[in-house]
Specification:
Elements: E1 2-7, H1 15-29, H2 32-37, E2 38-44, E3 59-63, H3 69-81, E4 85-89, E5 104-108, H4 112-115, H5 122-136, E6 141-144, H6 147-156, E7 163-166, H7 174-178, H8 182-192, E8 197-202, H9 211-223, E9 230-235, H10 246-254, E10 263-265, H11 271-279, E11 283-286, H12 295-303, E12 307-310, H13 313-318, E13 323-326, H14 331-345, H15 351-355, H16 358-380
Parallel strand pairs: 1-2, 1-4, 2-3, 4-5, 5-6, 6-7, 8-9, 8-11, 9-10, 11-12, 12-13
């Protein structure tokens, strides 16, 4: 049987990239056509293998923990050339990946370095442009996560030679959600001190995630003496290597009164704990300035949560009926919207809407994964 390789070794420093591979594998496994022709193979290190063990014997999981690049190249050559791998999904064109370029299905999540170049150092801008241009100059299939990204490809690389395929994805979080019990939810609330109603902002603290508009909105809410019975909970890695002072700029606002008493800055939390926090939030705020296809929003869809969502093209493409758009550059408007939404969430007749129907959300996850698999069939079948 032919095989499709998902190599996670290059994404070990980017957990979002590994979750992306997991989500695409889920859609592949929802396609009878793909399963009939291909076996899914995952190459990953032992530290991150648990991300993929949920698929059990439906995939072949190869664990590699070595750090020697020459030995890794030999291992991958053996795996790909001698064991029936036809496609390498999301192949990186580094020194090793270039050996298998003819079998590569490339992926560019977004073109942030083009749309928001001010958030990058010149060296990284140049490096990213070289990497993306190499992929676009080959006749392989290039996967893009949204029509917005396809529009950017045509805008920034109009001379491209690649074939393009937009492949949306769902957030496959059913294994984690099945482990959530009332006892676990109480334990997470106790661990992080979440005993008040709260609004949740689940993003890594990269500058393009635009926490600043939310923090400024919270500042305005608190100065008006509103939402005294609400906390604002932030999770995510606190470091942005491109803008290392960004977190300190945010903390300068977060740690002053009257804001400080309402902020819960939790940093990176374990995935199931993060989903517990999202599940029990009154609602979610996602203020990002750039996304490929936002995992935060896909998580919220599965949990059937209400989301206040920045009004950017990809979010207009991705949103569902429980999303409300806002101007990501207007903290006053966001403050008003947060207050208005919290007041709605406090009404007894709105309780079920804001609690969310997780079972309905998971059913929709399966339905959408099946739909999105049709785009993958165009690549593989």
């Amino acid at each position: 049987m032919k095989k499709i390789l998902f190599n996670g070794l290059g994404n070990r420093g980017w957990i979002g990239g590994l979750y992306y591979l997991k989500n695409i594998i889920f859609s592949c496994l929802e396609s009878e056509k793909i399963k009939k022709e291909y076996r899914i193979v995952v190459l990953i290190d032992s530290a991150h293998a648990d991300i993929f063990t949920c698929f059990g014997n439906r995939i072949d999981l190869h664990i590699y923990d070595g750090t020697n690049k020459a030995k890794l190249a030999l291992y991958e050559m053996n795996l790909i050339w001698l064991h029936g791998v036809k496609y390498c999904y999301a192949l990186e064109l580094n020194k090793i990946g270039s050996l298998f370029a003819s079998r590569g299905i490339f992926w560019i999540p977004d073109f942030q370095h083009k749309t928001l170049p001010e958030f990058f150092q010149p060296e990284e801008l140049a490096r990213k442009d070289v990497t993306d241009r190499k992929m676009t100059e080959l006749p392989n299939t290039l996967v893009l996560s949204s029509e917005d990204a396809r529009h950017d490809l045509e805008r920034f690389y109009p001379e491209h030679k690649c074939r393009t395929q937009v492949v949306h994805f769902v957030s496959y979080i059913e294994p984690e959600l099945r482990t959530i019990t009332p006892e676990l939810e109480r334990g997470v609330a106790d661990k992080f001190g979440l005993h008040k109603k709260y609004v949740y902002l689940p993003n890594q603290f990269w500058k393009h995630k635009n926490h600043v508009v939310a923090v400024r909105a919270i500042e305005r809410i608190k100065k008006r003496g509103l939402l005294a019975d609400y906390d604002f909970v932030f999770t995510g890695n606190l470091e942005d290597y491109r803008n290392p002072e960004y977190i300190n700029e945010l903390k300068a606002i977060m740690e002053t009164e009257p804001v400080a008493g309402s902020i819960r800055l939790l940093g990176f939390v374990e995935r199931t704990e993060q989903l517990c926090i999202m599940k029990n939030a009154a609602f979610i705020v996602q203020p990002s300035l750039c996304e490929g296809w936002g995992t935060v929003l896909e998580d919220a869809k599965v949990l059937d949560k209400a989301v206040l969502l920045s009004n950017i093209p990809v979010h207009r493409e991705q949103k569902n009926e429980k999303c409300t758009l806002f101007d990501p550059h207007d903290p006053d408007a966001l403050a008003d919207l947060i207050v208005e939404t919290a007041e709605r969430a406090d009404r007894p007749e709105e309780a079920a809407y804001f609690a969310g129907d997780m079972m309905a959300g998971m059913a929709n996850m399966y339905r959408e994964a099946g739909e999105y698999a049709k785009a993958l069939e165009k690549i593989f079948v």
